[in-house]
């Protein structure tokens, strides 16, 4: 089993280039199968989730060619293949194959998704959406069976603001007969990215980025070329790592607007920030103030940034309160931070964090962003001793070239 080793205490310095967004890529790759001809995706990140999805597309009969960060997906000889088990269970975003296959073939059999199960993650809103479009949905032994004689547009009000349900309904509805309206839709930038791809394929989607999305179904979609937006969660993690190590880092190839919630919080703590057109410079300071952080849906502070932020808050003077309003118990990483000397108490859906000096320890990542929190903490430990992180396979889901990027910034980090 791989592990990451970090000899901390080195301020990060230099420039890091951010790759395409995982949470876009894992929706765009399945979306491509709705086309009748080849879709080319640029700026594709090199992540295990993307690799598994690619294998799934090949199992479905697509021809996939990857060259660096470019992937060409030709779904012209795609078949409807049931996928109750196997690779499908390895990642969360395999649920996008439900919407995509339903749109393309009117049917899908997909095993319940795996991935980071930091707490129960229901998909009832996805299913409610498919049913509203006229599909019959049943759970047979842990696999979701979806079948529709004909997909018909419908008005769907989401009970919770869900990224996955919003995208999944958009995928299926883009090939439905008539108009679908999604109310209380999620507004994340990745949703806009998926709609941009679908519209380039010939779909008719408006309203993305607002709480009402209108999708006029079309009878067929065609191939196109699309460049994936930068990964705002990777970008935010490097911003936090730069601040935590009192470094000086330019995080490049980003959309600064997508970073506003993180930028504002770092500024409030006293971190130096310079914003450019496609990059942001983070200038670390010797002392930071404690702050309160609330993880919310976009444009609020992202729940995916909550865990790395917790590691930074251990470096602030006084008491910070970090509350997650999206996932009430996304805190499995906290006992590991405590093992590293962090002073954190859990109260309901909040972590109460006192400033502390971290120390090296052997710790285990049990989910992707919890793993990122441990990396930030390991980098922050004053020199002397090595932090050992296992569970690296979780981190591989969302951070490409992590060791290379951090090493280039001057970190002492290696993988064994
Ligand atoms: C691949 C991907 O893009 N993953 C992101 C996506 O996950 P994902 O799309 O799975 O998360 P959702 O936005 O759906 O979840 C938001 C909230 O709604 C609840 N819920 C969701 C769906 C549903 O059918 N029923 C229900 O109750 C969830 O338990 C959670 O409390 O958005 C999350 C919230 O920003 C991020 O943490 C994940 O990184
Ligand atoms: C939770 C995450 O991803 P997923 O929904 O793919 O598990 C994440 O990116 O932090």
Please provide a brief summary of the model.
The protein is of the alpha/beta class and 416 residues long.
Task: Pick out its properties.
416 residues; alpha/beta; UDP-n-acetylglucosamine1-carboxyvinyl-transferase, Chain; 2 domains; 4-stranded mixed sheet; 25 strands; binds uridine-diphosphate-N-acetylglucosamine; binds phosphoenolpyruvate
CATH topology value of the largest domain: UDP-n-acetylglucosamine1-carboxyvinyl-transferase, Chain
The strand count comes to: 25
Radius of gyration: 21 Å
Spans of at least 5 consecutive residues whose pLDDT stays below 50 are none
Mean pLDDT: 97
Q: How many structurally independent domains?
A: 2
Question: Which CATH architecture of the largest domain?
Answer: Alpha-beta prism
General form:
elongated
Question: Helix count, per DSSP?
Answer: 13
CATH homologous superfamily designation of the largest domain: Enolpyruvate transferase domain
- For the record, give the distance between the C-alpha atoms at the N and C termini, rounded to a whole number: 9 Å
What portion of residues belong to β-strands?
A: 25-35%
Biggest pleated sheet: 4 strands, mixed
Family: Belongs to the EPSP synthase family. MurA subfamily.
Pfam families: EPSP_synthase
Function: Cell wall formation. Adds enolpyruvyl to UDP-N-acetylglucosamine.
Subcellular location: Cytoplasm
